[in-house]
Amino acid sequence: MSATTTDDIEKGVASRRLAALAEHAAAAGSIDLGEMIDVMGRAGIAFVILALSLPALCPIPGPFGMVFGTCLALVSLQIIVGYEKVWLPRLIRRRRVSAGTIALIVRHTAPLVSRVEAWLKPNRMRSLTGRRAHMLLGIPVFLLAVIVALPIPFGNILPVLALTVIAVSLMERDGFATIIGLGLAGLAVIVTAALLYGTVFAAGWALGA
Predict the structure, then answer these.
(1) Residues 102, 37 contacting (CB under 8 angstroms)
(2) Which of 3, 140, 175, 197, CA to CA, is 20 to 30 A from 96?
């Protein structure tokens, strides 16, 4: 039997947290956003980024993108100023999500998380995943949160992918993956700006016609 390496021990943190989240929600029947954040790791900002971004990727009725995008924007501002624990207004924190919805979120997003984890290398360029890096990453996370909150059809896929790569890379301490996540974030901002410009241009052309 081969020896267990440090990388083997550390990889897959996000997948395990998602499974724990689904189990906790199933046992209780539902879970509020505050509990959701706590289960994903209250002291770990990366877990919170992942927990609040993934629901926007699922085909769930209702303004989930707006709700979770708004929460993520609030969290990103706290990241920028150096908070180590997340605070949410009581009204948002107490918003409940059914166990079925949590199961749907995990079922749709776990494969994406697993694929991201598969090519990560724990402790690579670790200096880019420390506390100072967390604070600086709050800026692109805020921009991505705003995009997630916008009601753009299929507009959440790229920003959520960027957020997932950033969050999981921080969990696994892979600085190179963090750089890739920032590249995806920049691409998401450019694509969203182009979509918004195209929408405004088309609306102006239609009204002027």
Answers:
(1) no
(2) 140
Instruction: Give domain limits for the chain.
Output: 6-208
CA torsion sign for 158, 162, 168, 172 is: positive
| Pair 114, 43: CB distance under 8 Å | no
**Strand (E) or helix (H) holding 163:** helix 157-171
Beta bridge partners of residue 97, listed in sequence order? 31
Q: Roughly what angle, to the nearest 10 degrees, separates helices 45-53 and 157-171?
A: 160
Report how far residue 193's alpha carbon sits from residue 182's, in angstroms, rounded to the nearest whole number.
17
Predicted TM-score (pTM) of this structure? 0.78
SS (H, E, C) 189-209: HHHHHHHHHHHHHHHHHHHHC
Could you write out the DSSP letters of every residue in 16-62? HHHHHHHHHHHHHSEEEHHHHHHHHHTT-HHHHHHHHHGGGGS--SS
Cα separation of 135 and 96, whole Å? 29
